[in-house]
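Contributing new complexes? Match this layout with S-adenosylmethionine.
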Amino acid sequence: MSVKASAKLHAANKAAHEPAPSILEELAAKAAATAGMQPSMLDRRNLKQTLKRRMEITKHHNPETYLDLYRLSTEEQSNFLEGILNNETSFFRDTTVFAELARWTAAWFSINTRPMRILSAPCSTGEEPYSIAAMLEQAGIPLECFSIDALDLSASAIEQAQTAIYNGLSLRNIPQPEQSGFLERAPKGWRVKQHLRTHIQFRQANLLDPNALDPQSYDLICSRNLMIYQTTEARRCMAETLAGALVPGGRLVLGAADWGRDLDEFFRLEEPVNSFALRLREPEPEPSKPQKPQIRGPQKRTNSPQTTVNLSKKNVVKTALRTSEQLADVTALYRTALEAYLRAEEREAERLCRQTLYLEGDHLPSLELLAKIHRPHASGRMQLALHARLKRHRTAAERCA
Ligand SMILES: C[S@@+](CC[C@H](N)C(=O)[O-])C[C@H]1O[C@@H](n2cnc3c(N)ncnc32)[C@H](O)[C@@H]1O
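Output block (do not edit by hand):
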């Protein structure tokens, strides 16, 4: 056979095995519905790669016969879903949030005597709940004073969380793991020390399941970087479940780009207004006066709310202040961008996001906020460019993980 004919045959074979768009759409729609995701948020290349991998594993040589299996087998549907979930995370992801968490927990421990109940959902591969445990431990809070549950839809992520071995970009905020106090060398990376590993209860669950969480069982819930990908219905359903799982006075912490006005029904933004700390909406005797927006630039923090804490709580405050001192200009700028966004000053928010990205080109929260600002009105090209950039950073993160 001539080279030309062989190339033609190869191209024909490839085309025969290329999944038809309708097959990819069906797989994407089903998987996205299970997780509550917007199908448009699914990366097409990742979908194709997952399909290819699953066809190899299940020994199906063409997409149509694989689709038959997929339709019939709930196990295969779960396996496929595992391949497309975005498990990106890292220790102390977003230092601003951890500084706030340190402050809030310090205040909580200064007025409560019972143990604090914490939930990290979704916890992905475990970096978030371990970071919370390490933060509290380093602040001098004994383990018996808090419990942490953690859940995620991805069974493989939960398995990895329980193994607790990390390397690559998971550790990007911990330049010297040997000095972290909670990690120790392991043959394949760094492992969370045993006393913290056994302190966290991990389980696999779907936050769309209304029975995923027991009612009124948590003082603090971290649910970061999930709702941004969810459909309106899924966000509502999850918000209801999370609100039901908080005790009165409890706090919900979201990722910077997760928040939206649609959550107002269940939660109020914490003051000073920020989009990641929310408290349960409680019945109000009178309609509250509209708050005058506070215009604040990058600022110095005061420690006035912590003056009444006892000795061990002082450590929490110290940790919070140390972390805030470490916050680069980038974080302060990003925070100001967020505040502008919350005041509906989108142009200003966009300008500040761009400044942040000028200083730190792969600052994911800024990229995500920018994508959110542009989503309702951006041209297709602008959207595509932003998504390509977000995808590049996420792929780089996955590659290093
Ligand atoms: C980007 S990670 C966020 C992890 C962590 N909270 C953070 O901010 O670093 C999103 C996680 O949400 C999980 N997830 C997606 N849909 C879910 C659902 N319906 N219920 C529970 N977890 C879900 C994914 O498996 C993934 O691990």
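Reviewers usually confirm one structural detail per submission. For this one: Strands lie at 116-120, 146-152, 165-166, 183-186, 189-192, 200-204, 218-223, 246-254, 267-270, 274-280.
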